[in-house]
Amino acid sequence: MRITVIGYHNGDASQNGVRIAQSWTMQRHNVQMIDFDADDIIEKVLKHRSEFCLVTQGREFDHFILEELRSKGIFLVQWIPDEYGPKDPPGGLWFDKIKGIYNLLMCETRGIVPLLKDYADEVIWITQFFDNRYHWCTERRGQYSFDVGFLGGPNPSQSSIRLKFLKQLIKDGCDVQVGGGDFFWGHLRSEIPPNKYFSDGMLIGGEMAKFYSRARIGLNFINDKLPQYELAVSNRILKTVGSGGFLLTQEVEGLEDLLIPGEHCITYSPMDYHDFAEKIDFYLKNNSLREKIALQGKTHVLANFNIDKITAGFISTIRQKMG
User: Which stretches make up the Spore protein YkvP/CgeB glycosyl transferase-like domain (predicted)?
Assistant: First the structure.
């Protein structure tokens, strides 16, 4: 198919739009990438003779300029990895900019699909993907540097427990490493002892995979302060498991769409530090069981959620919707 992908590109492989476009190119589709701030977007799409145009979010982008493409018969698709619902400040306010423009919205958060039903001709849930090329780990698991690792910010406006649980683990003497960059932590970085703070910068790609592989246990927290429909399964889950890490995550609705608890990962009761700490202690002591689950999880993710399989599914779905 002839496809245009519009998003934040600039040759930066950390951008989702670039990786989706590369995946489609490897599947022998004719794909052009256009940056949100490019000149003559409409002319470029028309010149390419695109059958459909995929836009990867774009909170600041002027989506109304795409109406001309739709009037000329080009199918418009919006890919939304957001956990916010419409009208929710600050992350959901941009939805008004896309209302009535797109033929199809594809949402990674199942709970916002019914909330957006009037925003496009059709709104569907699609699964996340793991980019097994971009996040490929060059190290063999087992070269541990620390017991427990977490990548991400404290997110105090969305999570009541991230910083609380991490600080308590450190206080209890657990060998913890926290990363995520000062951009995420700001003044709250002072809450984490310097020897427990892994990196001054963001870890992406293979370096992120290496972090998860070097941790005996990788952590995930849900954002309990968000509305219930926004308790989405973070993409951190697939990144941790796909990189070969052992994942300990809170119980959250929708996890079974990706992983089977007890087989591919382990869960703990939301808001329950005692259960959280007990699970960490148990799996630190039971190496063979922990590594069996980590390997089963990685095998499962690479087989079922690798980027090429999921983006091929995008194409099949879009073709079906185009009629």
Answer: 164-309
Read off the amino acid at residue 116.
Answer: L
Region 280-294 average pLDDT: 98
Residue 95, φ and ψ in degrees, nearest 5: -60, -30
**Fold type of domain 146-304:** Rossmann fold (3.40.50)
Tell me, letter by letter, the H, E, C secondary structure of 155-224: CCCCCCCHHHHHHHHHHCCCCEEEECCHHHHHHHHHHCCHHHECCCCCCCHHHHHHHHHHEEEEEECCCC
| CATH architecture, domain 2-129+306-322 | 3-Layer(aba) Sandwich (3.40)
Among candidate residues 242, 282, 286, the one with its CA nearest the CA of residue 264: 242
Distance of CA 127 to the CA centre of its chain: 10
Question: What confidence score (pLDDT) does residue 10 get?
Answer: 67
Q: Residue 8 carries which DSSP code?
A: S
Listed by start position, the domains of the chain span 2-129+306-322, 146-304
For residues 212 and 236, is the Cβ–Cβ distance under 8 A? no
If pLDDT is split at 50, 70 and 90, which confidence band does 302 have?
very high
